TrEMBL record:
<dbReference type="InterPro" id="IPR014710">
    <property type="entry name" value="RmlC-like_jellyroll"/>
</dbReference>
<feature type="domain" description="HTH araC/xylS-type">
    <location>
        <begin position="170"/>
        <end position="267"/>
    </location>
</feature>
<dbReference type="Pfam" id="PF12833">
    <property type="entry name" value="HTH_18"/>
</dbReference>
<dbReference type="InterPro" id="IPR018060">
    <property type="entry name" value="HTH_AraC"/>
</dbReference>
<dbReference type="Pfam" id="PF02311">
    <property type="entry name" value="AraC_binding"/>
</dbReference>
<keyword id="KW-0238">DNA-binding</keyword>
<keyword id="KW-0010">Activator</keyword>
<dbReference type="InterPro" id="IPR050204">
    <property type="entry name" value="AraC_XylS_family_regulators"/>
</dbReference>
<dbReference type="InterPro" id="IPR003313">
    <property type="entry name" value="AraC-bd"/>
</dbReference>
<dbReference type="InterPro" id="IPR018062">
    <property type="entry name" value="HTH_AraC-typ_CS"/>
</dbReference>
<protein>
    <submittedName>
        <fullName>AraC family transcriptional regulator</fullName>
    </submittedName>
</protein>
<keyword id="KW-0804">Transcription</keyword>
<dbReference type="InterPro" id="IPR037923">
    <property type="entry name" value="HTH-like"/>
</dbReference>
<keyword id="KW-0805">Transcription regulation</keyword>
<dbReference type="InterPro" id="IPR020449">
    <property type="entry name" value="Tscrpt_reg_AraC-type_HTH"/>
</dbReference>
<dbReference type="InterPro" id="IPR009057">
    <property type="entry name" value="Homeodomain-like_sf"/>
</dbReference>
Amino acid sequence: MRNERKIIQDSTLGVEALLFNGIQQEFPNHWHEYYVIGLMEAGTRQFTCQNTCYIVEAGDLILIPPNAAHRCQQLTEEKLVYRNIHLTPENMAVQVQKIFNTQLTPHFPEPVIRQVKEKEEFHAVHQLLLSDRGDEFEKQERFTCLLHDLLVQYADFTHEQTDPVSNKAAAAKAYIDQHYAEKLSLSELSDGLGMNQYVLIRQFTKAYGLSPFQYLSTVRISAAKKRLEAQEAIAEVAFLTGFSDQSHFTRIFKSLIGVTPKAYQTIYQEDGVRTYE
């Protein structure tokens, strides 16, 4: 099985779709600003989401809400075959309004669903997305029906209660959000808050599921994605989002997103699926 990565941005549905076929890459702790709906088709992985560990296998569905810290790694020699679809919170809200005529926000109480009955339809819809051909009407219809079924079966639309965040952890997050493009240090962050560095790391990680550095990396990558979508030069994007150089940027981007910045940028240049080994 060859190492293959496919990615497409579907402008009609407003989603990204990715296929990782035959890879063994480990993804470190990170988060995304969007919903991730993924299907394992081969391989066995240890998947951790919001500090809870799962073993995921072929046939399992993965449901990751926005800003949920998660990571995964390979457990066997069998290589990964994994499909996923990304929906921004704004697009999810539009889809929910269309499907259920409600403005409630869906929450997935369980990030892993074992041996989902919708796996064959998920595969078929994902193939339609990646094929970049066929009837748009069919694609829209099948995607809408699939999302309806997944939300009905696995989503909770009630208000999610969250633990209170300490004021200093929140202040650290706000500082990183504002200054992510600058050269930051743990000592600068902790001194500015008047607290011990280790205590800051513990409070921040407890509140957000990521260490301050992991959070900084994901904020930078999130900002970089928007600039890549706008077709800014990759070297300039690296500089403007706080990375030491383009090589460092490329390494971190691929470790979190699964494809290089150049590969990601091309899907916003023109319609069509992109395949990378």
